[in-house]
Amino acid sequence: MMLFALEARAQQTGTIEGAVTDSLSGQSIPGVNIVVEGTQRGASTDANGQYTISGIQPGTYTLRASFVGYAPKAQEAVQVSAGETTEVNFALAESEIALEAVTVTALGVERQERSLTYGQQGVSGADIAEARELNIANSLSGAVSGISVNQAATGLGGDARVILRGNRSITGNSQPLWVVDGVPIRGDVSDLNASDIQEINVLKGPNAAALYGSEAQNGAIIITTKTGREGELSLTFSQNLQVRNPILLTDYQNQYGQGSAGQYNPSAEASWGPAMDGQSVGFWSPNPERADEQYSLNPQPDNVSDAYQNGFNSTTSLAATVGNQSTQARFSYSYTDAQGIVPNNTLQRHNIQGRVNTQVSDNLSLDGKLSYSREDIDNQLATGENFTNPIRHISRLPRNIRTEDAENFEYFTNEGLRRQHFWNPGSNGGANPYWALNRNLNQNTTERVIAMTSLTYDFTDALSLMVRGSYDGANSVGETRLYNDTYIVADNGQYAQSRSNAWEANGDFLATYAQDVLDDWSVEVNFGGNIRKERGGAVFTNTGQALTVPNFFTLSNTQNVVASERVGSPREGSPREVHSLYGFGQIGWRDALYLDLTGRNDWSSTLPFFYPSVGLSAVLSDLVPAFPEAIRFAKVRASWARVGNSAPPFQTVRTASFSAGGNNGFLSLSNTLPAEDLKPEETVSYELGADLRFFQGQRLGVNVTAYQTNTRNQLFTSALPRGSGASFEFVNGGDVENRGIEVTLTGQPVITSDFSSNIDVNFSVNRSEVVRLTEDQPSLTIAQDFMREFRIVAGEPFGQVFSRGFQRDDQGRVLVGPDGMPLITDGLSVKVADFNADWRGSIRSAFSYKNVNLSFLIEHRQGGSTVSLTNAILDADGLRERTLEGRDGGLVFGENFFSEETAVLEADGSPNDIAIDAETFWRNVGGRNAPVGEVFSEDATNTRLRQMTLGYTLPQSIVGSLPVSSVNFSLVGRNLFFLYRASSNLDPDLLVGTGAAAEGFESFTPPTTRQFGFNLQIQY
């Protein structure tokens, strides 16, 4: 009965279908909005420019087609009959004004691109979702000029370090502000759902982001999420599946096994032993049951790669949209399941979002959004030299250790005690990698809620008031289990729990007056205010290294519970409150000349400060009579801004801490004094730009920007003399300058009815310089470890890495001692790395032929360097191919070894002629405790195929017979391969962390990975 009713109803209504094409080229236009006026019916064209609107009551209607970049067009007197299909086609003409698209800027305000007085660049949400990354920040790499994106080497769910136009803040944060739907969030975008993103606009400098205040002195990245649309009722299913394939870049030697000086030693961690030719040797196992076992000493070329696996990312998404003239809504759900290239590293993520836009009355509109995410990560990787980092132990596998033996990572004693099956029991720094993978475990669960509600009341067509509230909060629970016999880290086992929470709440209002005045003038004036609160904290509890009952993981299973509480750390959200008032306005003349003025004052919980900006934009092609016809659009712009950055909490007073002991505990004053007359950090920015577009339809475009920023009054510590009552004091100082050029080239070389192509080229150069620190402090050490110091040095680019190096004479020749070894500097005094790139560039090209589309993105980084602790340790262990030369001696430094150097004997300055062997050299310059960084510096230059997609859209002739409106399938790939790599075995994309000091330093990062798979999208 229901089927008959539905069939009868279908026969009582009609259908409109057709195609939309470009009036000049005849090419189909996807994404065009078609509305049947006077009804709630409508549709959007698919990838082939086709549309279908069904369920229309018989009658005569007007259809309207609209799309950004084209003049809207209406078809009147369209007759619809019951049970019949009416064909209505549109040929849209490009509009020179419309081609200047509307973009979302600060505070969610929409502006025409022609009126912008600063640089910005957009990225389509569709591109991000199609070849998706687990962290959307990584998708921006190569897509935007002037951006640098690096990943933290923590496996699945890792953060990203994003820098726009160079590092600025010496001890603070140089990363941009992230804004979602006009509201700042806490900064973490790793758990956002790519399927919900409509577009991303990158506001590159302080000039663009001045209205967001101190949080945006490093620029802002504006994310706009999807909403429902009027006249649309749809259900979209998508499935993205990609395989992660580890790419081992290190070339291991496979000739020599465990031992030293050519002699076999079954408990050796290094591979300086005998040549492996199948001879029978004693098995390395400490298990008494295998004490007399022998085995053949043979190379194991795959024992490192065997420890890794192919991972995958799978994301299933479902989204429903509905909209009529007054209310539009969108609801979505995504489930992500991922497995890392390291066994037991997994991630599961749920994302739910609902957004509703409604016209409450003729004058009042509401925009509301609520999103929830839950992310469960098992065994996120420790980084660098952390002994629980499995990458450290995998990379150091001696060349004769068989995979099947190492995989048997534990045994039990006669007393039933679990023991690590390792060739050097109790090692200070070594471990069986499979023990680290299976017996050093951690889990973390994070739940996050982002909510936003805004009300806009239109008093008149020119005057409106928006009030908005938002909340971004997260709670995390984690635990760590280290089994007994985890050397050094937890010999007797350890159990730890952590709980943390952080939230940020924003309340703001914005009054807007926009009106055309006289014949040629337009005025827009805005006044607003914001209150932002940030809170957070964490509690950490562990058993120490003393589990009473082995491997019974509970906090009560110890005699020594260790607990700590942290309130307001940067990670958990500093206890901060900022009250702000701001105003901005724009005066326009003839839609061609625009003047922007902004001013904002922040009263933070530490410091108050005011910062203004001014910008001017002139569309010369509209202002200059008889402008060359080939140049269809020409704009120049200039802007200036001063943006502050508040000091962290607790910097204006001397802090104290409590600890247990005595009768009533101990009170300890901080050893760092507060700054006197503390000033806010500020960035002054200048920017000049030009935007040129050529030929009919603006088929070729060039956008050029030149900028300079100076960040002054930075807050850092300075050492105090003994007897002053403290060790350090906070001081204001520093001037970090960044100068650069960004060029974006866009083109559409070929457009026909069946084929089209476009190309985007990004190029950027940034030069940083630390102009000054303080009068009596020429350099500042930010981080230090066994290998290097990360320093800020006056007169040098931001972030120099210093380590040990060769001693040299006045002519730069390396001095060699009587043993034939080059002499090494006493301290970390030699500059060995500077991560700043000389320039960056990318090429993105897309081709479309009928229903097939192909696109690729190639990214290049030129210059910069990094120093590798991994290589220092692997070479000291005799594991890499370059340690093969000279194992029997005969190496003469500066002659047949390191021949690029000129080496002389320290005693008399004569050329070095003393021979040494490889083991002597590499063990003296490498290793963990005092490596010579100069030997292990690597060039960061590389070119890679960052992304490629090949897609197919089912033609309408097939889709029309299915219960769907469109089907798209594509093969996708990310980081497919290097076209060129200067480094022998490093990927400079991967860092040990996301802090500034992580730049220019590599330490046991996991292998780089390529991703490839498919994306399927079905719309109903």
Task: Explain what this protein looks like in three dimensions.
The protein has a 22-stranded antiparallel beta barrel. The chain has a 5-stranded mixed beta sheet with strand order 11-16-17-14-15. It is mostly beta strands and 1020 residues long. The protein is built from 10 helices and 59 strands.
Break the fold down into its secondary structure elements and pairings:
Blueprint (H helix, E strand, L loop, with lengths): L1 H11 L1 E9 L10 E4 L5 E3 L5 E7 L2 E8 L6 E8 L4 E3 L2 E3 L9 E3 L5 E3 L7 E5 H6 L16 E6 L7 E5 L12 E4 L2 E2 L12 E7 L2 H4 L10 E6 L7 E15 L11 E2 L2 E2 L15 E3 L11 E3 L14 E13 L3 E13 L6 E14 L4 E15 L11 H6 L7 H5 L2 E3 L5 E3 L12 H7 E19 L4 E20 L11 E24 L3 E22 L19 E6 L8 E14 L3 E12 L3 E12 H4 L7 E15 L10 E4 L6 E4 L2 E2 L7 E14 L5 E20 L8 E24 L3 E18 L6 E6 L4 E5 L6 E4 L10 E3 L13 E5 L4 E11 L2 E11 L2 E4 H8 L26 E3 L12 H8 L11 E3 L2 E12 L2 H4 L6 E16 L8 E2 L9 E2 L5 E12 L1
Parallel strand pairs: 1-7, 1-8, 12-57, 14-17, 40-43, 48-53, 52-58
Antiparallel strand pairs: 1-4, 2-3, 2-5, 5-6, 9-10, 11-16, 12-13, 14-15, 16-17, 18-23, 18-59, 19-20, 21-22, 23-24, 24-25, 25-26, 26-29, 27-28, 29-30, 30-31, 31-32, 32-33, 32-34, 34-35, 35-36, 36-37, 37-41, 38-39, 41-42, 42-43, 43-44, 44-50, 45-46, 46-47, 47-49, 50-51, 51-55, 52-54, 55-56, 56-59
